Amino acid sequence: MPLDILATAVVEGTDKIPFWREIRTLAPYIAGIGAIKFWTRGGLNQWGRKLHGKVYIVTGATTQGMGTAVALEMAEQGAQLIILVRKLDEWATEWVEDLRSKTKNELIYLEQCDLSDLYQVRKFATKWLDNKPARRLDGVVAMAGNLEPVWNGTRKASADGLELQIAVNFAGTFHLLDLLRPAFKAQPPDRDVRIIATTCMLQAIGDVRVEDPLWRDTKYDRPLKYFGSSKLQLGLCMLELQRRMLSSDKKDDGRTGKNVTVTLVQPGIMRSTSLRRLISNGSVLALIFLYSILLYPILWLFTKSGFRGAQSVLYALMTPELEEVNLKDEQVKYVVNTGLGRFSRKEFDDVELQKKLYDTTAEKILELERSMAIKRNVGKKKPAVSDAKK
């Protein structure tokens, strides 16, 4: 068929081609749309890496978007996955069974660990560390995130009383990685260990509260600013985490930590749960009519799918550029669109700021944990007192 059309155009002229005028009119628009979509869809990870025998802790895997695409590829490559979920309910069980069936990989496990609850994070990390010899751990892929409706003035709080976005995106993820530091350093020097944390371009509108990193004493005004700030503060702490992994003392048995790399990944604008919540403001009607019907053609054209967003995370996981033998410096790498990018905020060049933010965050989390532990203990004692009165 295409050859016949081409032959007709050569021998008899383009006017003999059916609907030629319509084709000629629409062709520039179709070509323009195709070019825009080709540019906005994002790149594909070109690196392949077998993950058989490797063990990873993964957060944010049940999103049915980027997180699920990353977990699916890792499982297909043979990795053993410990996936942290907020609830071990029927839906989560069915989801993991489906993942095992699709990938023919039975080494996929769910662990309850709500990142918004610092007590649950500590329980998981303590259980992981309470092993001799140390359990194998080839990395952590931290993709969990929470974005609250932008025009909602109601402050949602975590179990510890923190603003929910700060709790999930920053405090919980920071706490998990900070507690697992001994597990990373305990790995053999020849094991390539990768810590990958996802960030967002909305970090550009974020602020850093060095003295109040958990934002407990800050007036709640703009939810989107809390989201951007949580991502910005996490990124800055990841730079300090890399430096602390490289420091060695007598407890480390001479390990340099150079086999442990920390990478920040900015996957781009995706048609994700966060984008749907941002546009719909948490309204089901707005989600159906505004997002799914009115704006979807535009969003399809200018945003990535979850699968395409996952490619940058997979690149950070699989590229040989991050192996110790290929590292040219000891700085945290910033992955954008399946390639290495540069940080734009000046705070990423301020080493003292990053160190102070890391220390203050760890200190404030410990203080909060202690106060919550006292409350839990008081709550346990109350029933005993009432029974004694009876």
Automatic annotation (TrEMBL):
<dbReference type="InterPro" id="IPR002347">
    <property type="entry name" value="SDR_fam"/>
</dbReference>
<keyword id="KW-0472">Membrane</keyword>
<keyword id="KW-0560">Oxidoreductase</keyword>
<feature type="transmembrane region" description="Helical">
    <location>
        <begin position="278"/>
        <end position="302"/>
    </location>
</feature>
<dbReference type="Pfam" id="PF00106">
    <property type="entry name" value="adh_short"/>
</dbReference>
<keyword id="KW-0812">Transmembrane</keyword>
<dbReference type="GO" id="GO:0016491">
    <property type="term" value="F:oxidoreductase activity"/>
</dbReference>
<protein>
    <submittedName>
        <fullName>LALA0S12e03708g1_1</fullName>
    </submittedName>
</protein>
<comment type="similarity">
    <text>Belongs to the short-chain dehydrogenases/reductases (SDR) family.</text>
</comment>
<dbReference type="InterPro" id="IPR036291">
    <property type="entry name" value="NAD(P)-bd_dom_sf"/>
</dbReference>
<keyword id="KW-1133">Transmembrane helix</keyword>
